[in-house]
Amino acid sequence: MSQEDNKPAPQSAAAPANATPAPPKKPRGRLQLDMSVNVAGIALRNPILAASGTFGYGVEFEDIVSLDKIGGFVVKGLSKEPMAGNPPPRLFETAAGMLNAIGLQNIGARAFIEEKLPRLRKINGAVVIANVYGYCPEDYEETIRILNDGEGIAAYELNVSCPNVRYGGITFGQDPYLLSEVVAGAKAASKRPLIVKLSPNVTSIGKMARAAEDAGADAVSLVNTFLAMAIDPITRRPRISNITAGLSGPAIKPIALRMVYEASQSVKIPVIGIGGISTAEDVVEFLLAGATAVEVGTANFWDPRACERLVDELERWCLEQHIESVASLRGGLLLG
Ligand SMILES: Cc1cc2nc3c(=O)[nH]c(=O)nc-3n(C[C@H](O)[C@H](O)[C@H](O)COP(=O)(O)O)c2cc1C
User: Fold this and answer.
1) Ligand 1 lined by 51 (C-beta under 6 Å)
2) What CATH architecture applies to the domain 36-81+103-226+248-324?
3) pLDDT digits over 21-47, tens only?
């Protein structure tokens, strides 16, 4: 962890003669900033993770981002068998955001273990989280069993919130009973910590977070994308072949923040905040709302170095604010 000189306090105007004497100033030594956080037993060097679907399998970013400098990354959603995803167009830029309906195109869990993991293992200190998708509870369990054999995976993130597939995904994330079933099965199959990624397309996020916790989740992450759409007024056709798509990016940040706050109030397990994060201040807002760590998604599309940049920016922000431990920011929101 790098160190930096603590900034001197600004000089105040001369105090009036009758003023109460100021308390003695603490000696300003070198501030030792601790950026580390712990999510369900996973030690992270800092709270910045790359979000699933926006960072490939990690290996694609190897030459651009120091994968051992960011907190970690969540790989593209993996299924038991490879998936082709939806036909194009699958992406569309909106005001301060992006629509996507990729449809979970991926190489499958076995190919991930054989083709990508060996390379990731060579990057000392990279924290790899595998995002898991299934059509039914048995699919999730089988995919996890396949991944259990892969060395070098820190945890699983269960995607029960994808809005862009016809079966599975969001179906589980919108019904607390189905969510409990899929989480309990996945937990029983898993030999690693289980993070459950929640959908924002629900009425009560607190209720869904609690259902995940009660069924055995070690942590929850939220949010996935918001169900949305766009139409080309000239052709009168949907902008995305799937008709509806998931909205992400800065446009969703205030809603995601509210949901992270509500989820954090509802569960005891760690919460990972996701949604429109692109600055150090965004990260701090999510931590203050109750998140232990954050994931950065759409920002990787306009700045592939976004995660590494945010680590530097967060460090600078903490030093400027005389924060000694990033973990101490969690839930620090002041009310009243
Ligand atoms: C192109 C794209 C693909 C995505 N694929 C996945 C996925 O495979 N699994 C998953 O859980 N979330 C997926 N997501 C959702 C993101 O991980 C994240 O939850 C969401 O985009 C909100 O964060 P952001 O506003 O920082 O992008 C995807 C998002 C985008 C934009």
Assistant:
1) yes
2) Alpha-Beta Barrel (3.20)
3) 544 444 455 678 999 999 999 999 999
